[in-house]
Amino acid sequence: MPETTPTGLTRLAFGGDYNPEQWPESVWQEDVRLMREAGVTMVSVGIFSWALLEPTHGVYDFGWLDRLLDLLHENGVRVDLGTSTVAPPVWFYREHPEALPVTPAGVRYEFGSRAAICHSNADYRAAAADITTRLAERYADHPALAMWHVHNEYGVPVSACYCDSCTAHFRRWLESTYGTVDSVNEAWGTAFWGQRYTDFEQINPPRATPTVGNPAQALDYKRFADATMRENFVMERDILHRLSPGIPVTTNFMTALSQCDSVDYWAWGREVDIVTNDHYLITDGRRTHVNLAMAADLTRSVAGGAPWLLLEHSTSGINWQARNPAKAPGQMARNSLGHVARGSDGAMFFQWRQSRRGAEKFHSAMVPHGGTDTRVWREVVELGASLDSLSTVRGTRTQGDVAVLWDWHSWWAQNLAWRPSEDHDPRERADAFYEALYDRHLTVDFAHPEADLSRYPLVVVPALYLMTEAAGRNVTAYVENGGTLVVSFFSGIVDEHDAVHEGAYPGPLRDVLGLTIEEFSPLLQGQLARITGPDGSELAGDVWTEFVVPRGAETVWTYADGLTAGHPAVTRNRLGEGTAWYVSTRLGAEGLDALLGWAVEDARIAPHVDLPRDVELVRRTGESGTYLFAINHTASDAKVPLEAHGTELLTGERAAGRIEVPAGAVRVVRLDG
Ligand code: GAL
Question: Binding of Zn(2+): at which residues (predicted)?
């Protein structure tokens, strides 16, 4: 059995992507000296090195990598070794130009960037298997080897290819999924617009069409492309397991970025030995630490609650957004420790030394262009010391207080064209509900809609357009058995083939919510729907309204005007031992807070300590104890009450009754007992 933590690592992982091939070997000596100074415990090596390892077809040069791994080992740095298969060399493409991916409009990409790969291409698969085999044979027993890093961020930047190899592969995939072409016709509803097929050989990928193509075909192509990338991961993983037994294999995820919406991480989480994730702050004016917390919670959930590892984030600014602000003093540590609080057994970066050339030279790094007499470097060294003092946190687990249902397949389906309103963005609803829960200091687990929900007092469904009958039965049983459910609009509409469920909306949620919806009535941009609460209070929703007909549910808030005037905006249904809430419009922060306030009461979740919303409190628990992480994102000092005495690990101070967390600082208390 492969291990599920990096082999030989006894402390938290701290380090980054290390690309020393960009520098003369003389710099390597300085690198390892600085790594020791900063307390680096692990680096990721060789992710993009195929062109150096195999400079021409069949000619290999492992000498530099031998020297590098030896040097790292002599300096006590563990190695996460890349298989380099995300960056095939130019000779490979000159021999196999058809391995370059093709867009839906039929344009073939060129060599000269990275990750330009058609994952159906047999020559790519063979070449990837070859370099992986050679790396595994050579380094399986190297004492520095801690973990294998397959490829890099599958699905980014190319999520699907539409070439002829993919066409043939897709037809085989359809045949094994559906058996007969008539089953495909049925699932895709090809009776519509005369799209009926009589042979698998007639079916193509959803290439560019004059107007909207078949949505079920597009949805299946997402599934096919995801499965195809996973086949290639599994192929490399199995080679590594066979030749390098015991060493864990990972590939770095990007769970919460909409750029990587092409990968079903629930499925990928089951294939890797360790879940690893990359996270970058999206600076769109919102609170970046909330998005970070969400990504970390989602990653932990994909890992089934087990410890995971943050394999990449940034020390300061990145370089691929329109505007890339630097991080404020202390922000890097808050970010790194925020991930650790939510289950990461370490904090790694892209990258160790900032590049002077190439596309990412303006991306921050652990060793910046300015060298070691810089704030970034001083903060890196400080973070290394902090992580060292948190070593015993390793292996402990963060547990969620509530669950949010999340399904990439639903997201894929909902983002297809021609929906009632393009202003309804499922990701926006997930963010908004997450933020409302975060502001109540509740730790969120994400759960697949068919997962066991019984341990959660509260389950929130922010946007689940695609929902199977099984998922409907799951949430219904959850409520009958005493759970509290909150469902937001346009959920439970279609089945796994994007076909609208039989009967009135919302098919599999009708019983649990105690209502039907006769019609959707999206609002125009800027239009508001006034809604009136039980005590006469008023709120507004936007984007969406519905003609909801209660069938057992009580109406709590009502539309006060507009087409849906008099219809329920928010309902509550008692079923069995539990309660299900439904909201049919897009509530702002105030409305969501009110709604969740009631739901939290129904769920009998004890109110959390009275703290400013930006003082983040998360716990990790395990054999070595319980750790309370308090992260102060505000500009004022905060006092956090403690339920037990303990030791603050970053300062070594004893703590009783409460702990002071200075503005912008992090404190981690190991509770006694
Ligand atoms: C990641 C990628 C790294 C680097 C980084 C920059 O997505 O894995 O190689 O490009 O972004 O932010």
Answer: 118, 161, 163, 166
Structure-token pair, residue 10: 């006894």
Q: Which of 54, 153, 496, 648 is catalytic?
A: 153
Question: What fold does the segment set 615-671 form as a domain?
Answer: Immunoglobulin-like (2.60.40)
Query: Mean of the pLDDT values across residues 214-236?
Result: 98
Q: Is the pLDDT of residue 535 over 90?
A: no
The answer to whether 346 and 250 are in contact (CB under 8 A) is no
Does the predicted model carry a pTM greater than 0.90?
yes
Residue with CA closest to ligand 1 atom 6: 350
Q: How confident is the model at residue 673 (pLDDT cuts 50, 70, 90)?
A: confident
Q: And the tokens for 394? A: 């390793």
Residue 259 confidence (pLDDT) above 60: no
Question: For domain 402-603, which CATH number applies: 3.40.50.880, 3.40.309.10, 3.30.300.20, 3.40.50.300?
Answer: 3.40.50.880
Is the C-beta atom of 363 inside 6 A of ligand 1?
yes
d(CA 562, CA 552): 24
Q: Where in the chain is the domain with CATH 3.20.20.80?
A: 13-159+222-370
Question: Any idea which residue has 């609460």 for tokens?
Answer: 533
Q: Is the CB of 82 under 6 A from ligand 1?
A: no
260 a known binding residue?
no
Q: How confident is the model at residue 285 (pLDDT cuts 50, 70, 90)?
A: confident
The residue whose CA is least distant from atom 3 of ligand 1 is 350
| DSSP string of 73-128, one letter each residue | HHTT-EEEEE--TTS--HHHHHH-GGGS-B-TTSPBP-SSSS----TT-HHHHHHH
pLDDT digits (tens, 9 = 90+) for 624-650: 999 999 999 999 999 999 989 999 999
Say yes or no: CB of residue 505 within 6 Å of ligand 1. Answer: no
Average pLDDT over residues 181-201: 98
Distance 100 CA to ligand 1 centre (A): 21
- Whether residue 37 lies in the annotated active site: no
Q: Quote the CA–CA distance of 82 and 247 in Å, as a whole number.
A: 13
Of all residues in the chain, the percent with pLDDT exceeding 90 is 96
